[in-house]
Amino acid sequence: MIKAVIVDDEPYACQALATLLKKHCPDVQVLALINNAKEAVTIIRELNPELVFLDIEMPYLNGFEVLEMLAPIHFDCIFTTSYDQYAIKAIRFSALDYLLKPVDVEELKAAVKKVTSKSAPSLQQQMELLLQRYHQPQQGVNRIALPTLDGLQIIAVDTILYCNASSNYTVFTLKDTQKLVISRTLKEIEEMLEEDRFLRVHHSCLVNLDEVRKYSRGEGGTLLMSDGAEVDVSRSRKEALLKRLMPGK
């Protein structure tokens, strides 16, 4: 059994999630329903759960602040939230799980299923990435957590050369010629990296602009990357590319 607690300032939301877990996730034992963020810190320390369902938007302390007060983190965390662009981007960057309210049963089951596959070392790094991105939403960060077919891999952002869409997956090509198949769509990856030096130059390709060595003109044009690969630029994205390559012109 996975021992869990639910933290949400709305009692109805707590009870609704507990009901879904009892019906659809019998391996999860809910130890407590907590409606106060400050009390959550004390109760989580006392109960030492393996999993915390944590609301993000709460009075006095938000979910991220609760985690900071509990650091170092020794439990898995699944966030619950209404749509919050910056919060969700921070969560995605760290490859942690979140559920949008109202909670979908299939998404809940999938999130719980992932819990048993995580390792403590990667969890600590994920939490560090999450809080870094939360505190510095407009600044680039050095590392990103990526869910691969084998688990989780944390890499330096500046080692990414380009990313190619492959159905519902994304193939990362890194500087050491390594390729990673990531369980995220290219659109999700674009949303995570758009504030850094990355640009979608084609419907199926996102490139690191720092690794562009040459642009050859054409209908859309072609990019020569630092590893010698050539990347086509779509006509619709040509203008945006040139603005990024030659700012101020």
UniProtKB/TrEMBL annotation:
Keywords, comma-separated and alphabetical: DNA-binding, Phosphoprotein
Residue stretches making up the Response regulatory domain: 3-116
InterPro entries according to UniProt: CheY-like_superfamily, LytR-like, LytTR_DNA-bd_dom, Sig_transdc_resp-reg_receiver
Database matches in Gene3D superfamilies: 3.40.50.2300, LytTr DNA-binding domain
Limits of the HTH LytTR-type domain: 144-243
UniProt-listed PROSITE patterns: HTH_LYTTR, RESPONSE_REGULATORY
Modified residues (4-aspartylphosphate): D55
Pfam families for the chain: LytTR, Response_reg
Stated name of the protein: LytTR family DNA-binding domain-containing protein
Organism: Chitinophaga horti
